[in-house]
Design brief:
The chain is an all-beta fold. It contains no helices and 8 strands.
Length: about 120
């Protein structure tokens, strides 16, 4: 498994109930994908333990009834095809720009913009 170059810091509680950092390092990702799962949480959230909830990262975990925080990278000029799922996806443009192409038109987005994608293509 490869890692993402961005740093991920996950907090939790130590054995005495004090706030602490339980994970500090790069985000793991599948080697053949331009996406990484930064965190996965059950609903309702369970904040106990210090295990890495983002490992192992497989495609089936994205639609497992959990809240997922994924990081995706689209190289310049690429045509990424997304598909409709019965999920709500929160997308933040960190750098660069992208066109969100919908069935009724397109919206141009740039760094700092965000999308709440409610199960549409």
């Amino acid at each position: 498994m490869e890692v993402w170059s961005h740093r991920r810091v996950v907090t939790g509680l130590d054995d005495q109930g004090r706030s602490t950092v339980v994970i500090d390092g790069p985000i793991p990702r599948l080697s053949d994908m331009s996406a990484a799962l930064a965190w996965r949480s059950a609903i309702p959230a369970d904040n106990s333990g210090a295990e890495d909830a983002a490992v192992p990262y497989t495609l089936d975990v994205l639609h497992s009834g959990h809240a997922n925080f994924a990081v995706c990278e689209f190289p310049p000029g690429s045509d990424a095809y997304m598909h409709a799922t019965d999920t709500i996806d929160y997308i933040v443009i960190l750098s660069g720009s992208v066109s969100l192409v919908l069935e009724t038109g397109a919206v141009d987005l740039s760094a700092g913009d965000f999308i709440v994608d409610r199960g549409v293509i």
